[in-house]
Task: inverse folding
Protein backbone atom coordinates (compact mmCIF):
# COMPACT_ATOMS: atom_id res chain seq x y z
CA UNK A 1 0.00 0.00 0.00
CA UNK A 2 1.33 3.48 -0.84
CA UNK A 3 0.40 6.88 0.52
CA UNK A 4 -0.02 9.92 -1.71
CA UNK A 5 -1.13 13.14 -0.05
CA UNK A 6 -0.38 15.74 -2.73
CA UNK A 7 -3.81 15.94 -4.22
CA UNK A 8 -3.38 18.74 -6.74
CA UNK A 9 0.32 19.60 -6.67
CA UNK A 10 0.95 18.21 -10.14
CA UNK A 11 -1.83 20.34 -11.60
CA UNK A 12 -0.87 23.56 -9.84
CA UNK A 13 0.68 26.59 -11.43
CA UNK A 14 4.46 26.79 -11.44
CA UNK A 15 4.52 29.33 -8.61
CA UNK A 16 2.04 27.37 -6.52
CA UNK A 17 3.93 24.14 -7.11
CA UNK A 18 7.24 25.72 -6.21
CA UNK A 19 5.81 27.16 -3.01
CA UNK A 20 4.32 23.82 -2.04
CA UNK A 21 7.47 21.89 -2.83
CA UNK A 22 9.55 24.23 -0.71
CA UNK A 23 7.67 22.81 2.28
CA UNK A 24 8.04 19.14 1.37
CA UNK A 25 9.82 16.83 3.77
CA UNK A 26 12.14 13.98 2.75
CA UNK A 27 9.40 11.35 3.00
CA UNK A 28 7.12 13.23 0.61
CA UNK A 29 9.93 13.74 -1.86
CA UNK A 30 10.65 10.03 -1.76
CA UNK A 31 7.05 9.44 -2.81
CA UNK A 32 7.41 11.89 -5.66
CA UNK A 33 10.74 10.36 -6.64
CA UNK A 34 8.89 7.08 -7.06
CA UNK A 35 7.06 8.89 -9.88
CA UNK A 36 10.45 10.32 -11.04
CA UNK A 37 9.43 13.91 -10.33
CA UNK A 38 11.98 14.64 -7.56
CA UNK A 39 15.73 14.49 -8.00
CA UNK A 40 18.04 12.94 -5.42
CA UNK A 41 18.48 16.44 -3.99
CA UNK A 42 14.73 16.78 -3.44
CA UNK A 43 14.38 19.33 -6.26
CA UNK A 44 10.98 19.14 -7.90
CA UNK A 45 11.06 18.89 -11.71
CA UNK A 46 7.79 20.60 -12.65
CA UNK A 47 8.26 20.16 -16.42
CA UNK A 48 8.82 16.41 -16.04
CA UNK A 49 5.81 16.12 -13.78
CA UNK A 50 3.47 17.84 -16.19
CA UNK A 51 4.79 16.73 -19.59
CA UNK A 52 3.29 13.24 -19.32
CA UNK A 53 -0.29 14.40 -19.11
CA UNK A 54 -0.34 17.67 -21.07
CA UNK A 55 -1.38 15.80 -24.21
CA UNK A 56 -4.17 14.07 -22.30
CA UNK A 57 -5.58 17.43 -21.28
CA UNK A 58 -5.48 18.97 -24.74
CA UNK A 59 -8.74 20.89 -25.18
CA UNK A 60 -11.39 19.31 -27.39
CA UNK A 61 -14.07 21.25 -29.20
CA UNK A 62 -16.75 18.68 -28.41
CA UNK A 63 -16.80 16.30 -25.48
CA UNK A 64 -19.52 14.58 -23.47
CA UNK A 65 -18.60 12.43 -20.49
CA UNK A 66 -21.67 10.21 -20.80
CA UNK A 67 -21.17 9.36 -24.46
CA UNK A 68 -17.40 9.53 -24.84
CA UNK A 69 -16.39 7.88 -21.57
CA UNK A 70 -19.23 5.85 -20.07
CA UNK A 71 -20.36 4.80 -23.54
CA UNK A 72 -16.86 3.60 -24.32
CA UNK A 73 -16.65 1.34 -21.27
CA UNK A 74 -20.20 0.09 -21.78
CA UNK A 75 -19.05 -1.10 -25.20
CA UNK A 76 -15.62 -2.44 -24.21
CA UNK A 77 -16.49 -4.13 -20.90
CA UNK A 78 -20.29 -4.10 -20.56
CA UNK A 79 -20.53 -6.54 -17.65
CA UNK A 80 -17.82 -4.99 -15.52
CA UNK A 81 -19.17 -3.38 -12.32
CA UNK A 82 -19.34 0.40 -12.59
CA UNK A 83 -20.90 0.94 -9.16
CA UNK A 84 -20.90 -1.54 -6.27
CA UNK A 85 -23.16 -0.54 -3.38
CA UNK A 86 -23.71 -2.20 -0.02
CA UNK A 87 -25.79 -1.36 3.04
CA UNK A 88 -23.75 -3.74 5.16
CA UNK A 89 -25.90 -6.79 4.46
CA UNK A 90 -26.97 -6.79 0.83
CA UNK A 91 -25.18 -5.63 -2.29
CA UNK A 92 -26.34 -3.86 -5.44
CA UNK A 93 -24.05 -4.03 -8.46
CA UNK A 94 -24.58 -1.83 -11.52
CA UNK A 95 -22.57 -2.81 -14.60
CA UNK A 96 -21.32 -0.34 -17.17
CA UNK A 97 -23.92 -1.45 -19.70
CA UNK A 98 -26.74 -1.22 -17.12
CA UNK A 99 -25.63 2.25 -16.09
CA UNK A 100 -25.34 3.43 -19.68
CA UNK A 101 -28.64 1.97 -20.86
CA UNK A 102 -30.67 3.28 -17.93
CA UNK A 103 -29.04 6.68 -18.32
CA UNK A 104 -29.96 6.74 -22.01
CA UNK A 105 -33.56 5.82 -21.17
CA UNK A 106 -33.74 8.50 -18.49
CA UNK A 107 -32.20 11.10 -20.80
CA UNK A 108 -34.73 10.21 -23.49
CA UNK A 109 -37.60 10.70 -21.05
CA UNK A 110 -36.22 13.94 -19.65
CA UNK A 111 -35.69 15.36 -23.14
CA UNK A 112 -39.37 15.10 -24.03
CA UNK A 113 -40.11 17.74 -25.02
CA UNK A 114 -37.07 19.68 -23.74
CA UNK A 115 -34.42 18.65 -21.24
CA UNK A 116 -34.03 20.70 -18.06
CA UNK A 117 -31.46 23.46 -18.05
CA UNK A 118 -30.25 22.70 -14.52
CA UNK A 119 -31.28 20.00 -12.05
CA UNK A 120 -30.75 20.24 -8.30
CA UNK A 121 -30.20 16.67 -7.10
CA UNK A 122 -30.42 15.95 -3.38
CA UNK A 123 -30.12 12.22 -2.79
CA UNK A 124 -28.41 9.83 -0.39
CA UNK A 125 -26.07 7.13 -1.72
CA UNK A 126 -28.45 5.34 -4.08
CA UNK A 127 -27.78 3.93 -7.59
CA UNK A 128 -30.02 6.59 -9.13
CA UNK A 129 -27.48 9.28 -8.23
CA UNK A 130 -24.98 7.75 -10.68
CA UNK A 131 -27.62 7.20 -13.36
CA UNK A 132 -28.79 10.80 -13.06
CA UNK A 133 -25.25 12.11 -13.44
CA UNK A 134 -24.73 10.20 -16.67
CA UNK A 135 -28.23 10.94 -17.99
CA UNK A 136 -28.04 14.68 -17.34
CA UNK A 137 -24.61 14.82 -18.97
CA UNK A 138 -26.15 13.12 -22.02
CA UNK A 139 -28.89 15.78 -22.08
CA UNK A 140 -26.47 18.67 -21.67
CA UNK A 141 -28.21 19.50 -18.38
CA UNK A 142 -26.24 21.01 -15.50
CA UNK A 143 -26.08 18.69 -12.48
CA UNK A 144 -26.08 20.54 -9.17
CA UNK A 145 -25.58 18.23 -6.19
CA UNK A 146 -26.81 19.06 -2.71
CA UNK A 147 -26.26 17.30 0.58
CA UNK A 148 -29.26 15.83 2.37
CA UNK A 149 -28.39 18.09 5.33
CA UNK A 150 -29.47 21.22 3.45
CA UNK A 151 -32.25 23.24 5.06
CA UNK A 152 -35.25 24.61 3.09
CA UNK A 153 -33.55 28.01 3.20
CA UNK A 154 -30.35 26.56 1.75
CA UNK A 155 -32.33 24.88 -1.01
CA UNK A 156 -34.29 28.03 -1.83
CA UNK A 157 -31.00 29.91 -2.25
CA UNK A 158 -29.61 27.23 -4.58
CA UNK A 159 -32.75 27.09 -6.68
CA UNK A 160 -32.80 30.86 -7.13
CA UNK A 161 -29.10 31.30 -7.84
CA UNK A 162 -28.77 28.33 -10.20
CA UNK A 163 -32.10 28.98 -11.94
CA UNK A 164 -32.73 25.24 -11.64
CA UNK A 165 -35.88 24.05 -13.37
CA UNK A 166 -35.80 20.50 -12.01
CA UNK A 167 -35.48 18.99 -8.54
CA UNK A 168 -34.69 15.35 -7.77
CA UNK A 169 -34.85 14.14 -4.16
CA UNK A 170 -36.10 11.32 -1.94
CA UNK A 171 -39.57 11.06 -0.42
CA UNK A 172 -38.66 12.62 2.93
CA UNK A 173 -37.12 15.66 1.27
CA UNK A 174 -40.05 15.96 -1.15
CA UNK A 175 -42.52 16.17 1.72
CA UNK A 176 -40.49 18.92 3.38
CA UNK A 177 -40.10 20.90 0.15
CA UNK A 178 -43.57 20.49 -1.35
CA UNK A 179 -44.69 24.11 -0.91
CA UNK A 180 -41.29 25.66 -1.54
CA UNK A 181 -40.86 23.96 -4.92
CA UNK A 182 -44.38 24.21 -6.38
CA UNK A 183 -43.27 26.57 -9.15
CA UNK A 184 -40.69 24.13 -10.55
CA UNK A 185 -41.64 22.55 -13.91
CA UNK A 186 -40.24 19.16 -12.85
CA UNK A 187 -40.10 17.51 -9.45
CA UNK A 188 -38.88 13.92 -9.36
CA UNK A 189 -38.93 11.61 -6.34
CA UNK A 190 -36.67 8.59 -5.94
CA UNK A 191 -38.75 6.14 -3.90
CA UNK A 192 -38.75 2.50 -2.85
CA UNK A 193 -41.50 -0.02 -3.58
CA UNK A 194 -43.74 2.26 -5.65
CA UNK A 195 -44.28 4.59 -2.71
CA UNK A 196 -47.02 7.16 -3.32
CA UNK A 197 -45.74 10.59 -4.34
CA UNK A 198 -47.50 13.88 -3.72
CA UNK A 199 -49.43 15.93 -6.24
CA UNK A 200 -47.16 17.68 -8.71
CA UNK A 201 -44.38 15.12 -8.25
CA UNK A 202 -43.46 12.14 -10.41
CA UNK A 203 -41.52 9.09 -9.32
CA UNK A 204 -38.17 8.24 -10.86
CA UNK A 205 -39.54 4.91 -12.10
CA UNK A 206 -42.49 6.62 -13.78
CA UNK A 207 -40.10 8.99 -15.53
CA UNK A 208 -38.17 5.99 -16.86
CA UNK A 209 -41.40 4.47 -18.18
CA UNK A 210 -41.92 7.55 -20.36
CA UNK A 211 -39.08 6.30 -22.57
CA UNK A 212 -40.73 2.93 -23.26
CA UNK A 213 -41.07 2.32 -26.98
CA UNK A 214 -39.09 5.42 -27.91
CA UNK A 215 -35.80 5.58 -29.77
CA UNK A 216 -32.89 6.76 -27.66
CA UNK A 217 -32.54 10.51 -27.82
CA UNK A 218 -29.20 11.40 -29.46
CA UNK A 219 -26.58 12.72 -27.08
CA UNK A 220 -26.37 16.51 -27.01
CA UNK A 221 -23.25 17.76 -28.79
CA UNK A 222 -21.75 19.48 -25.78
CA UNK A 223 -18.51 21.40 -26.01
CA UNK A 224 -15.59 20.87 -23.70
CA UNK A 225 -16.38 24.16 -21.97
CA UNK A 226 -20.09 23.36 -21.51
CA UNK A 227 -20.98 23.52 -17.81
CA UNK A 228 -21.64 20.02 -16.47
CA UNK A 229 -21.51 20.37 -12.68
CA UNK A 230 -22.49 23.26 -10.42
CA UNK A 231 -21.46 23.32 -6.78
CA UNK A 232 -21.88 25.89 -4.04
CA UNK A 233 -19.24 27.04 -1.60
CA UNK A 234 -19.78 26.40 2.11
CA UNK A 235 -20.85 29.98 2.78
CA UNK A 236 -18.22 30.64 5.43
CA UNK A 237 -18.25 34.30 4.43
CA UNK A 238 -21.56 35.50 3.04
CA UNK A 239 -24.01 33.38 1.09
CA UNK A 240 -22.78 30.22 -0.68
CA UNK A 241 -21.46 31.08 -4.12
CA UNK A 242 -21.77 29.07 -7.33
CA UNK A 243 -18.75 27.17 -8.66
CA UNK A 244 -19.26 25.72 -12.16
CA UNK A 245 -17.20 22.94 -13.74
CA UNK A 246 -17.21 21.97 -17.39
CA UNK A 247 -17.52 18.71 -19.28
CA UNK A 248 -13.78 18.76 -19.99
CA UNK A 249 -12.26 20.02 -16.76
CA UNK A 250 -14.00 17.28 -14.78
CA UNK A 251 -14.55 14.66 -17.48
CA UNK A 252 -10.98 14.87 -18.80
CA UNK A 253 -9.06 16.88 -16.21
CA UNK A 254 -9.49 14.33 -13.46
CA UNK A 255 -7.41 11.81 -15.39
CA UNK A 256 -4.57 13.45 -13.44
CA UNK A 257 -6.36 12.60 -10.19
CA UNK A 258 -6.97 9.06 -11.39
CA UNK A 259 -3.47 8.26 -12.59
CA UNK A 260 -1.13 10.32 -10.45
CA UNK A 261 -2.93 10.45 -7.12
CA UNK A 262 -5.31 7.51 -6.88
CA UNK A 263 -3.13 5.22 -9.04
CA UNK A 264 -6.30 3.72 -10.50
CA UNK A 265 -6.54 0.94 -13.09
CA UNK A 266 -9.44 -0.89 -14.72
CA UNK A 267 -9.22 -3.66 -12.14
CA UNK A 268 -9.45 -1.43 -9.08
CA UNK A 269 -12.35 -0.87 -6.72
CA UNK A 270 -12.23 2.63 -5.23
CA UNK A 271 -13.97 3.48 -1.99
CA UNK A 272 -14.29 7.22 -1.52
CA UNK A 273 -15.81 8.07 1.87
CA UNK A 274 -17.73 11.24 1.12
CA UNK A 275 -21.32 12.48 0.95
CA UNK A 276 -23.06 12.72 -2.43
CA UNK A 277 -23.61 16.43 -1.91
CA UNK A 278 -19.92 17.28 -2.05
CA UNK A 279 -17.61 17.85 -5.00
CA UNK A 280 -15.29 15.17 -3.63
CA UNK A 281 -17.88 12.52 -4.51
CA UNK A 282 -18.07 13.84 -8.07
CA UNK A 283 -14.29 13.50 -8.35
CA UNK A 284 -13.67 10.17 -6.71
CA UNK A 285 -16.97 8.29 -6.87
CA UNK A 286 -18.05 9.31 -10.36
CA UNK A 287 -15.54 10.80 -12.79
CA UNK A 288 -12.34 9.09 -11.66
CA UNK A 289 -13.57 5.47 -11.44
CA UNK A 290 -15.72 5.71 -14.56
CA UNK A 291 -13.05 7.36 -16.70
CA UNK A 292 -10.62 4.55 -15.88
CA UNK A 293 -13.08 1.68 -16.26
CA UNK A 294 -12.75 0.89 -12.56
CA UNK A 295 -15.48 0.27 -9.97
CA UNK A 296 -16.86 2.84 -7.54
CA UNK A 297 -17.50 1.19 -4.16
CA UNK A 298 -20.24 2.80 -2.10
CA UNK A 299 -21.27 2.05 1.47
CA UNK A 300 -24.74 3.34 2.25
CA UNK A 301 -24.21 3.69 6.01
CA UNK A 302 -26.30 6.69 7.15
CA UNK A 303 -23.54 7.88 9.49
CA UNK A 304 -19.89 7.05 9.96
CA UNK A 305 -19.22 3.78 11.79
CA UNK A 306 -15.53 2.94 12.22
CA UNK A 307 -16.14 -0.71 13.08
CA UNK A 308 -18.25 -1.10 9.94
CA UNK A 309 -15.56 0.53 7.81
CA UNK A 310 -12.94 -1.93 9.06
CA UNK A 311 -15.27 -4.89 8.59
CA UNK A 312 -16.05 -3.71 5.06
CA UNK A 313 -12.38 -3.35 4.13
CA UNK A 314 -11.82 -6.88 5.40
CA UNK A 315 -14.73 -8.47 3.54
CA UNK A 316 -14.99 -6.55 0.25
CA UNK A 317 -12.40 -6.29 -2.55
CA UNK A 318 -11.66 -2.59 -2.04
CA UNK A 319 -8.21 -1.89 -3.46
CA UNK A 320 -8.02 1.91 -3.14
CA UNK A 321 -9.31 3.93 -0.18
CA UNK A 322 -9.85 7.68 -0.16
CA UNK A 323 -10.93 9.23 3.14
CA UNK A 324 -10.44 12.43 5.13
CA UNK A 325 -7.83 12.41 7.90
CA UNK A 326 -10.56 12.32 10.56
CA UNK A 327 -11.58 8.88 9.28
CA UNK A 328 -8.06 7.47 9.54
CA UNK A 329 -7.65 8.91 13.03
CA UNK A 330 -10.97 7.35 14.06
CA UNK A 331 -10.02 3.95 12.62
CA UNK A 332 -6.74 3.98 14.53
CA UNK A 333 -8.70 3.97 17.78
CA UNK A 334 -9.67 0.35 17.07
CA UNK A 335 -7.52 -2.74 17.53
CA UNK A 336 -6.31 -3.07 13.94
CA UNK A 337 -4.43 -6.27 14.73
CA UNK A 338 -7.80 -8.04 14.69
CA UNK A 339 -8.38 -7.12 11.03
CA UNK A 340 -6.80 -8.01 7.71
CA UNK A 341 -7.26 -6.11 4.47
CA UNK A 342 -6.37 -8.58 1.71
CA UNK A 343 -7.25 -6.38 -1.28
CA UNK A 344 -6.22 -2.92 -0.05
CA UNK A 345 -3.09 -1.63 -1.79
CA UNK A 346 -3.30 2.18 -1.89
CA UNK A 347 -4.64 4.82 0.51
CA UNK A 348 -4.98 8.58 0.04
CA UNK A 349 -6.28 11.47 2.08
CA UNK A 350 -7.14 15.12 1.52
CA UNK A 351 -8.82 18.09 3.10
CA UNK A 352 -6.50 18.68 6.07
CA UNK A 353 -3.10 17.48 7.32
CA UNK A 354 -2.64 13.91 8.49
CA UNK A 355 0.25 13.54 10.92
CA UNK A 356 3.12 11.16 9.99
CA UNK A 357 2.57 9.03 13.10
CA UNK A 358 -0.97 8.20 11.97
CA UNK A 359 0.27 7.31 8.48
CA UNK A 360 2.99 5.08 9.85
CA UNK A 361 0.64 3.28 12.22
CA UNK A 362 -1.98 2.75 9.51
CA UNK A 363 0.70 1.41 7.16
CA UNK A 364 1.98 -0.91 9.86
CA UNK A 365 -1.37 -2.68 10.08
CA UNK A 366 -2.39 -2.55 6.42
CA UNK A 367 0.91 -3.45 4.79
CA UNK A 368 3.01 -1.75 2.16
Result:
Amino acid sequence: MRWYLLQHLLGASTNTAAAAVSRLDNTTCLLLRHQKYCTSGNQFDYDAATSKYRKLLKPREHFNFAKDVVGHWASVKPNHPAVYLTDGSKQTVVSYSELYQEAQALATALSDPVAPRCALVILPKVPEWWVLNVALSWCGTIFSAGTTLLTPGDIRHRLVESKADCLVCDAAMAAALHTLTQSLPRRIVVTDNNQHVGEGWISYQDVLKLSNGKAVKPCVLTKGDTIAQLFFTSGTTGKPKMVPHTQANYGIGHIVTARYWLDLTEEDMLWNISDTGWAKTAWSSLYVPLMTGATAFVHQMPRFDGAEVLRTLSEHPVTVLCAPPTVYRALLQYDLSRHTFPALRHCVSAGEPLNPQAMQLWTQYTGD
Residues 9 and 210 are 46 Å apart (CA to CA). The chain has 15 helices and 14 strands.
